Amino acid sequence: MRLLTSTFRGVIKRYNFDMTNENETANDLKEKRVAILIDGDNAQSALMEQIVVEASRYGNATIRRIYGDWTSSNMRSWKDTLNSFAFQPFQQFAYSVGKNSTDSAMIIDAMDILHTNLVDGFCLVSSDSDYTRLATRIRESGKLVIGIGKQMTPRAFVSACDVFIYTENMIERERQKKKLAARQQMSAKLSEDEAKLIDNINQAIEMVGTDDDGWCKLSEVGTALRRIDSGFDPRTYGAKQLATLVRARKAYFDLKKPTGKSIILIRSKEED
Q1: 234: which residues sit within 8 A by CB, 6+ positions away?
Q2: Are 228 and 204 in contact (CB under 8 A)?
Q3: Which of 10, 161, 171, 218 is the Cys-Cys partner for 264 at CB 3.0 to 4.6 Å?
Q4: 175-186, pLDDT tens digit by residue?
C-alpha cells in the first residue's frame, strides 16, 4: 500500500497535478498535448462538447479520434458532431454480431500514438473494462490518463486512470448550464449567437480555473476560447480586442487590472 501511494504521488508530482485543486490542474497542464480517443460504441454523442472541454483542462487536444462501425445505425448520432469538433472517424467493422470490435482498433492506435511520443496524455472515453490494461500501460510510460465513462464503469478501469470523470456528472452540469443560458436569453432577449458567445466565455473561464474569488487571467481565457472554437475572433463581434468584447458585456462579466501589473483579470457573474 505504501509503494502504491508513493507511486501515485510520483505521478502527481511529475504533472504538477494537485488532486485537491482542480483549478491548478488546468493551469499547470495548459501547454500539454492530449489525445482524445472515443469508443463510439460505448459513449454518448450528446456529450461531445463536454468531452472536449474536460480533456482540454489537461492540455491541448491535438489528436481527436472516434472509433466504431460507421455502417451501423448506432453510430449515426456521432456524424453530426464530427466536423464541429474536428474529430477523425475510424472505421472498424463488427465481424461478430453482438461483439464490440472497436476496442482492439482503438488500443492498437493508442499504442502507436504512445510510441511516437506525440502527446503528454490520453483521454479514453468508454465504459468498457477492456481498456484497463491500456490505461495501465500508458501510465507506466509516464503519461497522464483521463477516463470518461458512466458510473457503471468497472472499478478496475476507473482505478487504472489518473483521473476518471463520470458522464452523469457532466450531464447534470450541462443541464444546469442550459437552464441558466435559457434564463439569461429570455431576460435579456439575447440572440442565439450572443447567448452562445456568453456560454463559451463562461466555459473558457471554467476550463482555465479561477482563484477563490472567481478571478482568472483574460489572456488564458482567450486561449481557452480558441480551443472551444478555433474560429473565435473578437472582430466577429465588432471588437478589436477580447477585453473590449468582454467589457461590452458587463452584465455577465467583471474585468479588473491589478495595480502595478499589466495583466487583466476576468470574473463571471454567472454565480451571482
Answers
A1: 240, 241, 242, 244, 245
A2: yes
A3: 218
A4: 666 666 665 555
Cell of 141: 510510460
Cell of residue 190, nine digits: 439575447
Of 128-137, 174-183, 206-215, 240-249, the least confident: 174-183
Among candidate residues 266, 260, 252, 257, the one with its CA nearest the CA of residue 220:
266
d(CA 129, CA 204): 32
The pLDDT assigned to 82 comes to 84
Q: What number of other Cβ atoms are within 10 A of residue 233's Cβ?
A: 12
- Strand residue runs (E) in 98-252: 121-125, 144-149, 163-166, 215-217
End-to-end CA distance of the chain: 44
Whether pLDDT at 233 is above 60: yes
In whole angstroms, give the CA distance from residue 231 to residue 268.
Answer: 22
Task: Give the span between the Cα atoms of 227 and 73, in whole angstroms.
Answer: 30
Q: Angle of helix 48-56 relative to helix 192-208, nearest 10 degrees? A: 40
In the chain, the domains with their CATH numbers are: 2-170 (3.40.50.1010), 194-268 (3.30.420.610)
Using DSSP's 3-state secondary structure scheme, residue 51 falls into: helix
Q: How many CB atoms lie within 10 A of CB 247?
A: 15
pLDDT of residue 36: 96
How many residues are recorded in the chain? Answer: 272
Distance separating alpha carbons of residues 121 and 123, to the nearest angstrom: 7
Locate 98 and state its grid cell: 453482438
> Would you call 145 exposed, middle or buried from its count of C-beta atoms within 10 A (0-12, 13-18, 19+)?
buried
Q: Phi and psi at residue 101, in whole multiples of 5°?
A: -100, 0
Please report the sign of the dihedral spanned by the C-alpha atoms of residue 41, residue 107, residue 166, residue 62: negative
Cell of 224: 481557452
CB neighbourhood size of 196 (10 A): 14
